Amino acid sequence: MGNILLPLYKTFSTVAGLVGWPYFFWHLKSRGKGESFMPRLGLKLPDGPVPTGSPRLWLHGVSVGEIQAAIPLVAELRTLLPTAAFIISTGTETGQMLARKHFSPQGALVCYFPLDIPWAVRRYLEYLRPQVFIGLESEIWPNFLSQAHQRGVRLGLVNARLSDKSLRRFVKYKRYLSGIFNLYDIVAAGSLPDYQRFQRLGISPSRLHLTGNLKYDRLLQGRDEFRLKEFRAFLQGAENEPGLAGAPILIAASTHPGEEELVAEAFQELLAPYPALRLVLAPRHPQRAPELARLLSRRGFNCRLWTELKSGRAAPSAPVVIIDTIGDLFTLYGAADVAFVGGSLVPHGGQNILEPAAWGRAPIYGPHLENFRWARQILEEAAAGIMVQDAATLAQAVRQLLDQPREREEMGRRAQAALVPHQGAARRQAELIAASAQKVTA
Q: Beta strands of 40-114 (E only): which ranges?
């Protein structure tokens, strides 16, 4: 960022932090508990002591998807850097829940990431004193990057992605932004199109690498067959419960407002040929579960919450189960017969359509996959995915897969096999980070 633009950005972000905090508080409360408000403004530092060890690595992922992708990366880093200390930060409360669940037992300090406001960034850097900072996917914060660079922190962006829309915006101001991008010591692109987009930003060739996507590694390595058997038991009930053991299961996952109505309409249509069909509805934001229960009840569906089934407080006899937890969705894909992946029937950009593929389920998805074109390309090259446009075509696609179980199994096999050649991204990215870390510990 140029000599003029960075001071202007600092001034703007400072004013935004001072004036915009009421809106920020309302935004957080509308989507969760609002517990991240004080930490993200830099008014509350992370709880607990900073872990000891060298090098001190700070990994940041915005939400659930990025934190899940970080799991195989951290595992590889622990192998390559056995004395390292880990700090894991998130920007959302849902991501924070998953990070605490997975990384806190391993001794990592889990905290929120500060807003890109000068005073918040300064307080966090002074307290955490990282030697290496690694952002996942698209974490480009000028105040944070410039202050960390001034303190001698090695900077990396891994699983890096850049949309066409962002590229057009960045290229327009390339003369001002090239400096901030070249603060990164490592940019590890998750796909060839992303690599080519970063090239156009003028990032030094010595800093830019094509490593593949972490999400491939997490998928095949993260399957838990014991947990899968447990989840199937929750959904199907005891063996002596009639009508459940062989009932087909449709999962509609990572759905957004506007999609649940379409899913409900398709489900209603499917009950005619498949009266025993069960719907597992997993909204992208689990706190919306009560809202969706009311929506489906108005349509005449009997619903149960997933937490009620897991705790034994409800029998799995209702035709609709609404997922109100974090961290269970991946295994639920394996428990389903047919999977629709949301964020794609509305203009949201899509969600990870490769997650059901890891379990041998050919995903159904809508046309809005701007953020997952790489995943769509992999599946379509393998003829292992189905695109739909609305409730009618969604119902048609589900019926096609249920009517033809052999075709469904073959498509699922092709979907799973398509992931195999893309393994190894976690190791490649960890090796780049470890080599960079050696420069601060030598």
A: 56-60, 85-90, 109-112
pLDDT score for 245:
60
**Could you tell me if residue 383 is inside a domain?**
yes
pTM of the model: 0.76
Are 195 and 150 part of one and the same domain? yes
pLDDT at 238: 47
Annotated catalytic residue 407: no
Q: Which of 274, 263, 249 is nearest to 403 (CA)?
A: 274
* 211 within 8 A of 432, measured Cβ to Cβ: yes
Q: How many domains are there within the chain? A: 2
With respect to residue 219, please indicate whether it lies within any of the assigned structural domains. no
Of the candidates 390, 263, 392, 286, the residue with the CA atom closest to the CA atom of residue 338: 263
Predicted confidence (pLDDT) per residue in 251-268, tens digit:
999 999 999 999 999 999
Residue type, 373: R
The pLDDT value recorded for residue 33 is 67
Q: Which residue has the tokens 């899509």?
A: 350
Mind giving me the DSSP string for 387-427? Answer: E--SHHHHHHHHHHHHH-HHHHHHHHHHHHHTTGGGTTHHH
pLDDT of residue 242: 45
pLDDT at 151: 96
CA distance 211 to 10: 33
Q: In this structure, are 279 and 200 located in the same domain?
A: no
Task: Catalytic residue, from 35, 66, 241, 407: name it.
Answer: 66
Q: How far apart are CA 117 and CA 349, in angstroms?
A: 28
For the record, the structure tokens of 403 come out as 């009517």
In total, the chain counts a number of residues equal to 442
Q: In what order do the strands lie in the sheet with 186-189?
A: 109-112, 85-90, 56-60, 132-136, 154-160, 186-189, 208-210
Separation of alpha carbons 405 and 409, rounded Å: 6
Range of the domain at 409: 224-422
Question: pLDDT at position 14, please?
Answer: 65
User: Rounded CA gap, 143 and 120, in Å?
Assistant: 10
Q: Which residues of the chain have pLDDT under 70?
A: 1-6, 9, 11-34, 176, 237-245, 442
Strand (E) or helix (H) holding 181: helix 174-181
3-state DSSP assignment of residue 306: helix
CA–CA separation, 385 and 430 (whole Å): 31
